Amino acid sequence: MASSSLICETGPWKDLRAHVEDIKKTHLRELLSDTERCKSMMVEFDGVFLDYSRQCVNLDTLNKLHNLAEASHLKEKINLMFNGERINSTENRSVLHIALRAPLDSIINNDGKNVVPDVWQVLNKIRDFSESVRSGAWIGATGKVLKDVIAIGIGGSFLGPLFVHTALQTDPEAIEFAQGRQLRFLANVDPIDVARNIAGLNPETTLVVVVSKTFTTAETMLNARTLREWITASLGPQAVAKHMVAVSTNLTLVEKFGIDPNNAFAFWDWVGGRYSVCSAVGVLPLSLQYGFSVVEKFLKGASSIDQHFYSAPFARNLPVLLGLLSVWNVSFLGFPARAILPYSQALEKFAPHIQQVSMESNGKGVSIDGVPLPYETGEIDFGEPGTNGQHSFYQLIHQGRVIPCDFIGVVKSQQPVYLKGEMVSNHDELMSNFFAQPDALAYGKTAEQLLKENVPRPLIPHKTFSGNRPSLSLLLPSLNAYNIGQLLAIYEHRIAVEGFVWGINSFDQWGVELGKSLATQVRKQLHVSRKKGKPVEAFNFSTTTMLTRYLQESAD
Ligand code: F6P
């Protein structure tokens, strides 16, 4: 396809480029003094409140961004996604994670077939299975109740479920349903992760859930064989039937591994790994831990955002606004990173999850038609909960590089604490920081202000804050299963919006393949060197030297 199809060749893109200089002339201090502007940059949907007035944008910028959305055919692309078109063209797949949380009476077609009944068939199977394990109707090989679960999986088969589990762990309703059960995640092929996961657990009371879309991922399969060994060594080979279940799209390989297909929970190739937390990938382990009714609320929260994303006008559409602002920050203002800063310890695994969703989706170098891109896509996502991050990397954010920040706050704490004699509750203390940081970034502190405070002159350059650093604030009413689902879907769709505007395929991940195939060659080399004493060969000088050293030193 001709390069004229690239979004950067369109009028709206060029218009925005030209507009950058105007915006650079205006400090956020000035932009924030315009109350009408600020009012227009606050949007609420279903209890989620977004304030993006601290973005380096004026109303003109927003108009231009909406023109860009039109030029990129954003609305049409969203429709194609919801209509089950094969928008993941390099893998010839549709992208229908929205169907995973759709109400039973919805119709979402893939290849002319409504997939919602299939989704609910698996959900019902999960409901039944998790209830029987939790109630003790399903028991282990020695007759004991299975109270602990280890979910084995990596990447999208790990990070989303871990995020949701971590977020629910302190939710009062979820705690009640957890009933002293444990859920652990084994992801890394590092044997240390195995040791940590099985520490203190008894195979007799443990259920292992092997989660892998392909059922071929090297790390997951080795970990699955390792835990199969852990179970069968003490309980015998027949124990697999009671102690191991699987989640996969590849039921043939599940059976080959030795897991009864009746104990397998399916999903489909139209669910991308990093978008799979609402499939059995997340729903099974989370239902085992918290019960299906809690997880169903999580699905409902995500579904509410799906409807909003599909139908709300762009000017009030949370994922669309967030996506367009990200494109502005990356492609026009040139800010390569984005900090995800939840002011809630329960969201400590949110940034790592979004890191995969965003960076695996949008870290691309060519357009969807294979044309090399003359502009950058994707952002470097990282983050930590506030206030921990404040005592770590915020120095750089305040006085070093400009990094647009997402501040995520919660009105009602999952675990409020009120201490006698304190000015405010512990949650208010946390939230004081949530409200203060965006203003510190936006306004900064001038040399004049410091002089008035009698700061010694030599310290003035060190204590000056330039300000004009963009952020946005998302305020959730509380952090229960429903709100967690909302938050997930907002970010999933925001990332899709960015990819749609950049004109890339956000749903493939070819960039992870090369490292995997090189690891296969190394694995073969390690095998022949150890077994047959063959010298390291066919690698470059650097790798040969390191491998030889590793083999020699680990043989001692
Ligand atoms: O690292 C690449 C990747 O394919 C991810 O996209 C995916 O989430 C992960 O590996 C795990 O894959 P699977 O679920 O097939 O084991």
Automatic annotation (TrEMBL):
Gene3D superfamilies: 1.10.1390.10, Glucose-6-phosphate isomerase like protein, domain 1. Pathway: Carbohydrate degradation; glycolysis; D-glyceraldehyde 3-phosphate and glycerone phosphate from D-glucose: step 2/4. Transmembrane segments: none annotated. InterPro entries: G6P_Isomerase (IPR001672), G6P_Isomerase_C (IPR023096), Phosphoglucose_isomerase_CS (IPR018189), SIS_dom_sf (IPR046348), SIS_PGI_1 (IPR035476), SIS_PGI_2 (IPR035482). GO terms for cellular component: cytosol. One of its GO terms (biological process) is glycolytic process. CDD domains: SIS_PGI_1, SIS_PGI_2. It is found in: Cytoplasm. GO terms for molecular function: carbohydrate derivative binding; glucose-6-phosphate isomerase activity; monosaccharide binding. Keywords: Cytoplasm, Gluconeogenesis, Glycolysis, Isomerase. Its main location: cytoplasm. Its EC number is 5.3.1.9. It catalyses: alpha-D-glucose 6-phosphate = beta-D-fructose 6-phosphate. It comes from the Eukaryota. Homodimer. NCBIfam families: PRK00179.1. Belongs to the GPI family. This is Glucose-6-phosphate isomerase. It comes from Olea europaea subsp. europaea.
